[in-house]
Amino acid sequence: MKEACEMAIVARDLVKVYRIAQRRPGVIGGLRTLFSPKYHDVRAVQGINFDIPAGQFVGYVGPNGAGKSTTVKMLAGILHPTSGTITVNGLSPQSQRQRLAWQIGVVFGQRTQLWWDLPTVDSFELLAAMYEVPRNDYLDFMKTFSDLLGIDEFLNTPVRQLSLGQRMRADLAAALIHRPRVLFLDEPTIGLDIVAKSRIREFLLQVNESRGATILLTTHDLRDIEELCKRVMVINHGKLVYDGSLSSLRDSAGLPTVLSVKYESLPRDLQEGSLISANGDSARDNRDTGWTVESIDRSTGTVRVAFDRSRSPAPSVIWAMRSFGEIMDVSLTEPLIEEIIKRLLKSE
Fold first, then answer.
1. How far is CA 22 from the centre of its chain?
2. So what's the pLDDT on residue 11?
3. Tell me: the pLDDT tens digits for 78-109?
4. With b meaning 16 or more CB within 10 Å and e meaning fewer, what string describes 85-94?
5. What are residue 64's phi and psi, to 5 degrees?
6. CB 91 within 8 A of CB 9
7. Contact assessment for residue 218 and residue 106, using Cβ atoms and an 8 Å cutoff
């Protein structure tokens, strides 16, 4: 029990199997299915193990059907695992769900915990009463979240009339009204525009940094992961295939960083596909350490060079490119995290 208390979330050998009825074709087959059903098992989660220390912000990603939402529902006590154990703040989500409810907040992007026909503020009042939040704490909450999320602009609007972005802000506030120590977020930015996503990301960083909340985030928008999470867990077919830092995930994919260099006068001795060494010389016979000229845009005087950032720091590449002429501007483009995860999953 000591280990569980030191960690906000502990999962050991976590398995979830769904029994699905097999439907037979035709009317006769439908009757046979009704009176003599056959089942097949779907293993949504297969032997997952992980620890999440208190205060950590973790991204949990993977393709559709990988087991992300099933894992979150088990951690929150909504589903029971077929086998394995879970503790959240030292409590079992299955056997101690009521006690745990006071310590966790949950947001599902596709569903709301607010009362559909009531003004938004009434939902907050009801939740505050349910969680026995002291009145002064509730008023402080309303002021803080009005500033952070701008919810005061729609407090008197019925939930059913809120835009998707407004509803997500209200759901986030509702999940935090009782100051939970752990926050589970399942697709909290789904369907939102760029402005709404940016506002929610800033808010979540504030909650994590100022309140020390432990946050587990599942998302298909990998920009969320890039901007919010230092640790990433990747799940595929119910199995955890990666658990580590975002930077290590980038390095393991082996995808290049691209440096765009704009020259005052385009170098004539550079050709697409040529290799450049650390001192700016030709590196035709040294492909392991050379940097490849990916493209040359003669209309803008821009040369794009691909290199492995884990082996070559960007300043050294820029310094080498100075030998070809006067540089007017530079920019770096990191590999997209979507491509990194695709590369990881292909290798499994």
1. 34
2. 96
3. 999 999 999 999 999 999 999 999 999 999 87
4. ebbbbbbebe
5. -60, 140
6. no
7. no
Backbone angles phi, psi at 326, to 5 degrees: -75, 125
| Amino acid letter for position 145 | F
Helix, coil or strand: residue 282: strand
Cα–Cα distance list, 9 to 16, 29, 85, 113, 275 (Å) = 18, 46, 11, 23, 48
Residues 165 and 152: their CA atoms lie apart, in Å, by 14
Write the CB contacts of 114 (distance below 8 Å, at least 6 apart in sequence).
120, 123, 159, 167, 170, 171, 174
CB 88 within 8 A of CB 183: no
Q: Which two tokens stand for residue 323?
A: 């030998």
Question: What's the pLDDT band for 319 if we cut at 50, 70, 90?
Answer: confident
- Report how far residue 2's alpha carbon sits from residue 331's, in angstroms, rounded to the nearest whole number: 49
Residue 188's alpha-carbon distances to 16, 78, 108, 170, 323, in angstroms, are 23, 18, 6, 11, 48
Q: What are phi and psi of 189, to 5 degrees?
A: -110, 10
Q: Which of 270, 318, 274 is nearest to 297 (CA)?
A: 270
Tokens 């119910």 map to which residue?
238
Tokens 């407090």 map to which residue? Answer: 155
* Structure-block tokens of residue 4: 């569980």
Distance CA 102, CA 113 (A): 15
Spatial contact of 311 and 336, defined as CB atoms under 8 Å apart: no
Closest CA to 257 of 291, 231, 301, 220: 291
Measured CA distances, 334 to 93, 234, 255, 256 (Å): 39, 19, 9, 7
**Least confident piece of the model among 161-165, 205-209, 264-268:** 264-268
Closest CA to 88 of 188, 186, 214: 214
Q: Closest Cα partner for 230 from 57, 62, 68?
A: 57
Whether the Cβ atoms of residue 303 and residue 261 lie closer than 8 Å to each other: yes
Name the residue with tokens 């101690």: 96
Q: How many residues does the chain have?
A: 348
